[in-house]
Structure formats: C-alpha cells, structure tokens
Amino acid sequence: MSDLVTRLKALLADGAVIDGEEAVRIGLARRPLGAPLAVVRPGSTAEVASVLRLCHEAGQAIAPWGGCTGLVEGARADGMIALSLQRMNRIEQIDAPGATMTVEAGCILQTVCEAAEGQGLFFPLDLGARGSATIGGNISTNAGGNRVLRYGMMRELVLGLEVVLADGTVMSSLNHLIKNNAGYDLKQMFIGSEGTLGVVTRAVLRLRPKPSSQNMALLAVDEYPHLPKILRNLERGFGGTLSAFEVMWQDFYKLVTSPPAKGRPPVPHGHAYYVLIEALGGDTAEDDARFERVLATELENGEIADAAIAKSKGECERLWALRDDVLQVGQNAPIFTFDVSLGIVEMESYVCEVRDGLKARWPAMSLMVFGHLGDGNLHLIPGVGDGGSKARHDVEEIVYGALRKRGGSVSAEHGIGLEKRDYLSYSRNADEIALMRTLKKAFDPRNILNPGKIFAVN
Amino acid sequence: MSDLVTRLKALLADGAVIDGEEAVRIGLARRPLGAPLAVVRPGSTAEVASVLRLCHEAGQAIAPWGGCTGLVEGARADGMIALSLQRMNRIEQIDAPGATMTVEAGCILQTVCEAAEGQGLFFPLDLGARGSATIGGNISTNAGGNRVLRYGMMRELVLGLEVVLADGTVMSSLNHLIKNNAGYDLKQMFIGSEGTLGVVTRAVLRLRPKPSSQNMALLAVDEYPHLPKILRNLERGFGGTLSAFEVMWQDFYKLVTSPPAKGRPPVPHGHAYYVLIEALGGDTAEDDARFERVLATELENGEIADAAIAKSKGECERLWALRDDVLQVGQNAPIFTFDVSLGIVEMESYVCEVRDGLKARWPAMSLMVFGHLGDGNLHLIPGVGDGGSKARHDVEEIVYGALRKRGGSVSAEHGIGLEKRDYLSYSRNADEIALMRTLKKAFDPRNILNPGKIFAVN
What does each C-alpha distance from A435 to A440, A455, B51, B90 come to in angstroms? Predict the structure, then answer.
C-alpha cells in the first residue's frame, strides 16, 4: 500500500480511506471509473483541505467524485486518489425569506428539490439522474436538464461557493446575494470546470417561488420548420411561463411508447416530431385556460398536427416518464451517446447529415434523437452494432464533423471529461484553449486536480 | 510628447490618437477621468490589439473607456493611455431566428435595444444611462438596472465575447449557443472585471421575445415587512412576468414628485414606501385582467395601502420617469452615492441604522433611498452639506460599517473601480481577494490593464 494512502488513513477517521481494489470490490462507483489508488471520503471541508495539502505536497493526482453519474469519464481515476464528497451531504440552511439554501457538495439533487418544496419554494434544476447526482457534480459540469429554457443552467442557480484549492486553501465565497459586483465573481470559474480548478465543498443555491400551476401537453408536428415557430409563439403566448420544450424525433417517440417500454402513445405514431411542453405558472384556473387557448390557436394555424393535453398531475408525470425513459435506447445496444448544441434552424439538416453518414457506413444502424430544443441542445444516440473503439471513433467523426461545420458545441451540458477531449478543438479555437491552460496553470500549477480532463495541460 | 504616443500616432489612422491635454480641452470625457497621457480611439479589433502589443512592450498602463458613465472612477486614467472603444460602435449582425445580436463593444445600449425591437425582439438590460453607456461598459461592470428580477444581470445576457488580452492576443470566443459546456466558459472571467483582465471588443448578446403587454402600477406601502410579502405574492400571481419591483423610500418619492421636479404624485405623499411594479407578458387583454386581479387581492389583504395603475403607455412612461429622475438628488448637493446589496429582510434596520448614524453626526443631513428591492439592491444618496474627502470617508464608514455587519456587498451593480477599493474587504474575505490577485497576475503579468482598479495588485 502506498505511503501516501497510509498517511491519508492516519489523517482521516476510520473508514474514510478505502484502498482501490477494495473500493472496486464493494462497488463504491456506479460506472467504470478506472482503478483509483484509493477512495477517500472526507466528512468535512477541513478534511478535504488536509487531503489536498497532502496530495499537493506529494504531487498526487486526485479525481473529485460526486454521484458518479457523469457521461464523459470526468470522474475516471486510474492511479489517482478518488476524492468522494458523498459523506458531505447535509443541507445546512434554508433561508425561506431570502430564498436561498446552503448545502454540502455531496447533497443529492432530489433531496435539495424536496427540501425546497417543503418550504413552499422551488429548486428548478431537473435531470434524469436527479436521484443520485450531487449538487457538487451539477456545479462542476454546469448541469442543464429539462427546465433551462425558463430557469437557466446550474450556473444561474448558484449564488455562492466554498472551494478547496489545489494547495488545500479553503476559498470560502458563500455569497447569498443576487447582485454582488464586489470584484471578480470567482465562483464562475469553478462552475463547469469539471473539478480541474478546485474541489467544491459547499454551495449557496438560489431558490424560486414554487409554481402553483403545471400545464403539460404532447404535440405532434409534421414539419421541422414549424418547431421554432411554435417555440416562439408559446414563449410569447404563455408570457414567461414556458418551462420545457422537449422534442423527440419519431424513432425515439416510437421506442418509448411501444413494448417493451411501459409507455403508450398519447398521440398516434407516424408524425415526424413530438414535443413535450410544460408551463409553470401562478394561477391554476387561469393558466389552464390560457394554455388551452394558446394551443388551440397553434392547432388552427396548422403548425401543430395533433395534441394531447395532460388533464391531471398523473398525466403530467406520465408525459415526463416518456421523455425520461432513455434506458429504452439500450434495446439498440451497443450504443454511443452524444450531447451537442447548435442553432435551432440547423438541426434538421444536421440530423439528416448524421443519419445519412451513419447509414452509408452501417446500413442497419439506429439513431435516436431527442433533446431540449428550446436550448439548442440535442441528444443523439446511434447504435451501429459495434461498440468498439474504432467504431466509436468513426461515429464521432460523423457526428462531430457535421457539427463543426455548423459552429455547434460537442458538449451542451455533459462536459468534456476524457471522452470528448479529442474533440474540444471542434468547438473551441486555439486561443480559447490556450487561455484555458493559462487558467489551469495559475490555479493548479502541479496539475493534481482531475488532470487530463477537458484538455491535456502540456 | 511621449515617445509611445508618437508611435501610437504612427500606428493608427489620423485623428485616432489625441493628446491628453487636447482630449480634456475638447471634453472627450463626460466626467473627471483624470489626466490621460492620450486618448486612443481604435476603429477595429486589430487596432486595439496593436495598441495593446505596443503598451505591453512598453509596460504602459491603459484604461479602457466606454461611455464613461461609470460611477466608481473605474475609467480614471491619470498618466495612462485611455483606450476608447467609442468608434467601434457597429451592430454587426442580428440573427432573428436564433435571437442573438453581434455588436462592437462601443455600441450604445439604447441603440442595441432599439435594433432588437426593430426585429420584434427584446434586449432587456435597462438603466438610466441607456443613451450613452456602451455594451462594453455594461459587460465590464456586469450592469444590472431595472429588469434584473426577470432577466438577470448583463452576465445572463451575454453569449459570447471577443477580448484583446494584455499582450495583444485576440481571444475570440463569439459563442452564439445558449448551452455550451465545451471547456471553461472563459467569458465569465471578463464580465464584471472592470477592464482589468482584458479589453472587450465584440459581444454576442442574447435577445428575448418582445413582450406584447406591459402593465405597471405605483403602490403605497406603510410597513416594511409587507414589501417582501408583496414581492413574493406578485412573483407567484403574475406567473413569471414580474419584471420590476422598484422601491422608493418616502423622502425620495417626495423629492421626485414635488417641484422643481416635473413629476406629480400618482398616489398621495405620506406613506412610508412607494413601489413601482412592472409586468411584461404575452397577452394584452388577459394580462391586464390578471394584473388588476392580483393587485386587488393584495389591496384586500391590507398589505398595499394605496395603488395607481397605469392606464396607457404614456402613464407607464411617466411612472418610469419618476424612478429615473435621480438628478433631483442634486438639490441636496454635495452628495455621495452608494450602491449596496443585502438581504431584503435586513433592509429596514439597515437604512435606519445608517440614517441614525448620519443624523448623529450631521443633524441636517438628507438621505435619499431607492432601489431594486427585488434584487436586494439599494441606492443610498446621503447629503451632509460637505463634499470633502474627510466627510466622504466618515459617511462611507457609516454606510459600509452597517452593511458589513449584515453580510452585504459594497457594490451591487456599479463595480468597485477606485472609489470603493478600500472597502472591497468589507464584502470579500482575504482568500477571495488573494484568488482575484492570482487571476489578475495570470492574465496581466505586467499589470497594464486598468491597474489599481478593484484592488491594488501588490
């Protein structure tokens, strides 16, 4: 056992340091996260700081772990100390009048949402992994999800951070204020930096008033150009309450509404696109009427081919369940998952080019497409009957090649991690990447914080 | 004339470089901005880059200038090259389907707002200096203003930036995407950094759908604790359309509704607080009804003592004119202006403590208070009959001392500049300021970019 691990065991409470093999054996990690030297689970910011001081002195690389639900190998920890925040999972304070919540980084997203609701408030971040993803992970990847359209990404939901820097310095910036222009807004650097600039240990979250009305519908649309028009018309017509505009290409819709999937089609198969829409408002009776009237107008002018309006909380949940039933793509395994963003007007031609490119090479391929169209964010899940690294590379070239031409981003919300590192230059130019390196070197001169993630330092 | 100025004149087109004395004589600057070595007005990013390369080699300090409407001496340029962006004022592109606008940094805010409206779109940033403040200045101070409650500060309205770094490198990061997690979000570091990390030359702005309804009212409220309740109830009741919640303490309201001010009181004097509210929605007829119904409920439950609802566009403009008529505070000249933020629940006791502190020292003092209560942001404008630096220092100790105890910020939206530099430590701890210095040194090792602003580097 390495000398460093011995010293870490001496430093922390019993059971806080688990040797790598043991950690893998007891399944501490939900996904293949490589072979860490050890998994260290500090119980406090002070312990995180002492771990980092030790690793900094030793030049030992660490990989911060949250819920390990990431999709881009951002937590891969071969030969590293896996620094798990899972034991730091307390909600420390809820300030109801100020509408803020202070939590430890290991706090589970769903726990935060439920605690906010308990106070008549609302934490808007919502994504499939809500039950296991941590707030620290949401911050380090600037998580997006289902309601970015209305409430923004995680960046807009964080007021303050406590971060432990590479050398163990605790940088406490637990701002509770909505507006604070007193010098640089340091938290912005850590949000979305995937654990490469510091380890987030605590956060102050911004809460919103709890909506008192939820209106949902599933729309069928036959022509792509109608989608951006419908989006703009609903944004206007609902006057600021549109909270989701989730588009499912027909193959995906068919997949999640046919056996063996549990879901059934609220509107018939056979249309080109299906849109899940949600509005969150403040006046149940009136919002229902407005919702139906605005949709009726869209139906009349022919942009919407068919629509099913959810009539109950249960029906709303069933609509979300369709959109969330991404596991069904496993039917086409082996698969690859992509998370891209591009201009809404480009999406139709983009998806066609990707599909044609894949078909030409793998005639039997499948391509599932869905996403947060309102945010310009698409998830593409191709299956080409081959999960090997050569196939992955060839698929990536097709998916990202078509994206690069359109000025898109290889990561809308999942981050870069290791998986997309070779393609960062498709979405960022040399000057941008050089400046990222400048920042990394200034904050982590020994390159011990999640090294190799996002970009190679040298 | 300095050798550097001679070289700058040779480098740029005729008339682009104006000697300091001449610049002062012809009144290039709207406020006392010190005595610059010269004012340089490049016409392109390439010229900005060549100016910076030259200044970097020479170790010559520069102060970026936008509209020079700042309130904290952030553009003060004694002995520096004043780098004015005012000639780079073009709107380069409006992408209506994508709802983005690409502009040069010297573009005037109001010009941007009008251009957006011309396309049926909306740029929400709104502040008193709209007619002369530039987008570059709005970015460098992370401007706030009247509609932060609904649309966020400038940070939330910027998608991409082009920045010239200290050494003249042009870092073009003109992202058009709403979601882009491909590596660090570099623009975040430059927004709100007051020209100390780079010179913003172009920006991609996010536009919103143009609201089709505007509802406004002026509310009279007698007890402070009612204000946060009314705010939350309106946020809920208006379902996401509340765009302004501007509170005027009674002295300020009286000042802007009595001669010599042009404004007249829409509701009588004598109440403790007056609130200007605005909702921007998508359905004129229905929004009017909702607006009046929600207000009626508040009147019934007694939280609102009196209310005047604007019945026309003209009446809306007259209500905003009251709130914007800040020049009336000149009646109490000499005055000092403060821009603080703190928790809404703390504001009443805070203002009382400041008033008592000032009264104890200057019995004849005046204190005008108003601000964006929905954002936790108050503007305090005391007049103590003495504009001297000793009086300023004593007033600052009273205003900021009471703020420090309450965990407030010495700058909600104006920035730190030179004026508030000595008080940065009231709102940021030593670790935060140390990290700001780390960032500054990494980006501007020779300390030539607006040196001395926000904090002293050494």
Answer: 9, 12, 20, 27
> Counting beta carbons within 10 angstroms of the beta carbon of residue B451, is it exposed (0 to 12), middle (13 to 18) or buried (19 or more)?
middle
Across the interface, of A165, A176, A212, the residue whose CB is closest to B407 is A176
* Predicted complex ipTM: 0.96
- Quick check: is A424 in a domain? no
A195 contact partners, CB below 8 Å, separation of at least 6: A63, A64, A74, A140, A449, A450, A453
**Is A21 a member of any domain?**
yes
Question: Does the pLDDT value for residue B458 go beyond 70?
Answer: no
A268-307 per-position pLDDT tens digit: 999 999 999 999 988 888 889 999 999 999 999 999 999 9
**Rounded to whole angstroms, how far apart are CA atoms A377 and A408?**
10
Residue ranges of E strands in A38-181? 38-40, 62-65, 81-84, 91-95, 100-104, 121-122, 158-164, 170-173
CATH of the domain at B362: 3.30.70.2740
pLDDT digits (tens, 9 = 90+) for A137-162: 999 999 999 999 999 999 999 999 99
Number of domains in chain A: 4
Distance from CA of B98 to the nearest CA of A (A): 6
Q: A403 and A339, same structural domain?
A: yes
A211–chain B nearest CA distance, Å:
7
Kindly state whether residue B422 falls inside one of the protein's structural domains: no
Residues B246 and B314 in one domain: yes
The percent of residues above 90 in pLDDT, for chain B, comes to: 90
Minimal CA–CA distance to B212: which of A434, A320, A107, A233?
A233
Contacts with A193 from chain B: Cβ below 8 Å: 184
User: Domain check: are B317 and B357 in the same one?
Assistant: no
Please give the span between the terminal C-alpha atoms of chain A, in angstroms, as a whole number. 30
A223 and A292 both lie in a single domain: yes
Q: What is the pLDDT of residues A364-411, one digit of tens each?
A: 999 999 999 989 999 999 999 999 999 999 999 999 999 999 999 999
List the domain range (segments joined by +) for residue A309.
213-326
Q: Judge if A219 and A296 occupy the same domain.
A: yes
A319 and A373 co-located in one domain: no
A182 contact residues in B (CB cutoff 8 A): 409-411, 416, 420, 424, 427-428
Average pLDDT over chain B, rounded to an integer: 95
Prior bond of A32 cis (ω within 30°): no
Nearest by CB: A179 against B286, B413, B454: B413
- Closest listed residue to residue A375, CA positions, set A189, A231, A241, A215: A231
Q: Do A186 and B435 touch (CB under 8 A)?
A: yes
- Indicate whether B115 and B204 sit together in one domain: yes
User: Closest Cα to residue A266, out of A316, A341, A329, A336?
Assistant: A316
The Cα of A56 is separated from the nearest Cα of chain B by a number of Å equal to 18
